[in-house]
Write a structure and sequence with these properties.
By secondary structure, the chain is of the alpha/beta class. About 35% of the residues lie in helices and about 15% in strands. The chain has a seven-stranded parallel beta sheet with strand order 3-2-1-4-5-10-14, sandwiched between helices. The mean pLDDT is about 95. It binds nicotinamide-adenine-dinucleotide (NAD). The site of nicotinamide-adenine-dinucleotide has 28 residues, from helix 1, helix 4, strand 5 and strand 11.
Length: about 350
């Protein structure tokens, strides 16, 4: 069996490559990256050392993708993964669409030509921002809490957001490219009879993640707190009550291992994949966790509001549990501990990756 991973030197791509290789030494893994994410170059030597071939290539270039050796499976993990991509003044909207959407099309063409299976790392950001903002929440002392007494939008419960939640625009350019990739992946599955699995992931987190305020928030926060770098609660009145769940990539790799052993057999092709309500916390709770671990550090507040800010994203894993017996194994605390150890061992990390 062989697998090609796009964005193989990113946090998710490199983590999947490592976990899959460790659990299946016979699996031939290779991949490519254009090293646009600061810090991604550091993963190249690690993967090389494990016998995982890394090519320097760009997913936007059809000829680069066409030139990849043949593989039985494709994992699409190359993207600009920020919800602010295309509106942050760093990347243009066209660049985001080229990497995130046209890149997926190039990979789907590759999968069609080689009759390879295709696994898309999609995102919780395909869900409607307006509807996410309507989720009834009670402001607890430490975090927003889902309020079961009030009427909620379709597809959400105290267990989180389900696949039936609205995907109506606006969902951000990032979310839009992911949703469009999902639709096209399903079309290629039907047209070319290739297996396609779409994992709508919530926040993924772990050691070695490149963190910025807009992406990789758990890593960014812990590294910044330890290094006593300025941190701010933005949005929601500067309360820090906004909640996200998080999942360790090793749990995603266990799922992907199963998916690579499964042909399309009528089971749902799109599943929400996240840590779920047991792995959810607010920024304020994350700061409290850090203050118990490290020296106290003051987090400032900001009255700014940001486009696309949402108060509560928790993934309901119910469908994945029924479909794949998916059950996260790595606890929230273990994820935070792992990042904290990495932060202590790598005081230079923010300079490498938070740029
Ligand atoms: N990290 C998360 O919390 C999370 C959550 C949901 C979905 N995802 C998805 O997982 C995938 C990987 O995200 P990540 O967190 O590892 O981000 P990342 O930035 O760490 O990794 C992405 C990698 O893709 C590479 N890349 C970007 N554009 C490229 C291009 N045009 N050609 C080749 N390589 C390119 C980057 O250099 C980087 O190494 C993305 O598709 C993202 O949307 C991530």
């Amino acid at each position: 069996m062989s697998v090609v991973i796009s964005g193989i030197c990113g946090f998710v791509g490199s983590s999947l490559a490592r976990w899959l290789k460790e659990s299946q030494p016979d699996l031939e893994i290779f991949g490519f990256d254009n090293f646009s994410r600061p810090g991604s170059h550091l993963n190249r030597a690690v993967l090389d050392g494990m016998g995982i071939k890394v090519f320097h290539a760009d997913v936007r270039q059809a000829s680069d993708v066409d030139n990849m050796p043949k593989a039985k499976w494709v994992i699409d993990a190359a993207a600009n993964p920020s919800v602010l991509a295309g509106v942050d003044g760093i990347s243009s909207s066209k660049q985001v669409i080229e990497s995130n959407l046209y890149g997926s099309v190039n990979l789907l063409e590759y999968a069609k030509r080689h009759q390879a299976g295709f696994i898309l790392i999609s995102s919780s950001r395909v869900y409607s921002i307006a509807e996410l903002q309507k989720i009834p929440l009670a402001p607890g002392a430490e975090s927003y809490v889902f309020d079961e007494k009030q009427q909620s939008p379709q597809g959400v419960s105290a267990n989180g957001i389900a696949e039936s939640f609205s995907t109506a625009a606006p969902i951000s350019l990032y979310g839009g490219t992911k949703l469009a990739s999902e639709v096209l992946a399903l079309e290629y599955a039907a047209m070319s009879n290739i297996p396609v699995w779409i994992n709508r992931c919530g926040v993924l987190a772990g050691a070695g993640q490149f963190g910025r305020p807009d992406q990789g928030i758990f890593s960014y926060w812990i590294h910044s707190y330890l290094a006593r770098q300025p941190l701010r609660y933005v949005g929601f009145g500067g309360s820090g009550l906004q909640v996200r769940d998080c999942l360790h990539p090793s749990d995603l790799s266990l799922l992907i291992k199963q998916q690579m052993d499964t042909a399309n057999d009528g089971r749902p092709q799109i599943c929400n994949i996240g840590g779920g309500k047991n792995s959810a916390m607010s920024l304020k709770q994350l700061s409290n966790w850090c203050s118990e671990k490290f020296a106290e550090h003051t987090v400032s507040t900001s009255s700014d509001t940001r486009m696309f800010d949402t108060p509560w994203i928790v993934m309901d894993n119910g469908l994945a549990k029924n479909t794949w017996k998916f059950e996260p194994k790595v606890s929230l605390n273990d994820i935070l501990e792992e990042i904290a150890v990495h932060a202590k061992e790598h005081p230079e990390w923010l300079k490498v990756s938070a740029i």
